[in-house]
Amino acid sequence: MEYADKRAVNQSIIVLTAVLSLVLVLSWTNWRANPIDIFRYLGAEIGSTVGMTVGIPENPFNALAQQLEEKEEQLNEKELTLDQREAEMQGRLFSAGGNIILVLILVVIMLLFFLISVNFYLDYKERKTRRN
What we know:
The chain is an all-alpha fold. It has three helices and no strands.
């Protein structure tokens, strides 16, 4: 390469670096995007432009891994439905249990009120007998 060609390449690298740095700074301050997101976007754009695809040929290990993933998804769905059923059952138990607890609390309060009233009556009666 000649000196002029090397200089042109160096200048283009400097300009490209400056533009990329400016884009990174502006994107970080204005759009709140970090450099990793920007490079992912640029990489995706370049990859879609080139049209390159990557794949692994089908083999027994891939098939087994796919079956395991499908089974895991099915188990997760079953777990979710069981959790929903359990929540419904607990809601029913708490609503029925809540009524029973409320009735018990009211009965205890009434019993305490009755005992306090009897205590006041007996105290009144005892004071009256002491005076006489």
